[in-house]
Amino acid sequence: MAFTTKGSLLAAVKKGDEISWQQFYDMYKPLILLKGGDLRLNQTEKEELVQLVMLSFFNTSQTFCYDKSKGRFRDYLKRIIHNKACDLMRKRHDGEISVEDIPLTVEKLLSEGESRWDEEWQNHVLKQALEDLRSAVSPLVYQAFSMLSLEGISGKEVAATLGITTNAVYVYKHEALNKLKNLIAEVDE
């Protein structure tokens, strides 16, 4: 199934659409796990973090209204992850972090992981846009673009493999890149 823009995906989740919920879960689980790793949660805690974040979003989904003017969705999601990670750290009984140290420790870890979060978010956006690009352009255009831009095959080799002119390869690449830029803008609201 092709990626749906964030606004329409959130609207479908709000309506309780099960397929959209699964898309939402599959889309954001890797980012939640990454952030849990940045906060130095163990594997069990990271999996619990995913469940807590998803449950928190599920519980508010009926009343949640995404408003771009109030901020980016990624910042909202990051705040939920932060809050739930603090909850998990407070529940620890092994003395790894004392309750008094949680705000300082989490803030330090958050600042250390900020560039990683931004990088991972951009990778996430690109992955979603590339998935959407596959269905937004013809198979030949996508294949030429993929071989040339993603796999690093020369234009001449791509042309020979696909049975088209070298000029057509570059025209297809240009078409795909323009579409990809628009899709990235949609995904990264």
Largest sheet: none
Radius of gyration: 20 Å
Number of helices: 8
Helix/strand-derived class? mainly alpha
* Shape label: elongated
**How many beta strands in the DSSP annotation?**
0
> In which range does the helix fraction lie?
over 70%
* Alpha-carbon distance between the two ends: 20 Å
**Average pLDDT rating:** 82
Order of SSEs, N→C?
A: HHHHHHHH
Structure description:
The chain has helices at residues 6-14, 18-38, 43-61, 73-91, 102-136, 139-150, 155-162, 166-187. With 189 residues, it is mainly alpha-helical. Helix 6 crosses helix 8. The chain is elongated. The two termini are 20 Å apart. Mean pLDDT is 82; it is low at 1-5.
Summarize the structure.
The chain is an all-alpha fold. 77% of the residues lie in helices and 0% in strands.
What is the element layout, followed by pairings?
Elements: H1 6-14, H2 18-38, H3 43-61, H4 73-91, H5 102-136, H6 139-150, H7 155-162, H8 166-187
Helix pairs in contact: 1-2, 2-3, 2-5, 3-4, 4-5, 5-8, 6-7, 6-8, 7-8
Pick out its properties.
189 residues; mainly alpha; 8 helices; 0% strand; elongated; disordered N terminus
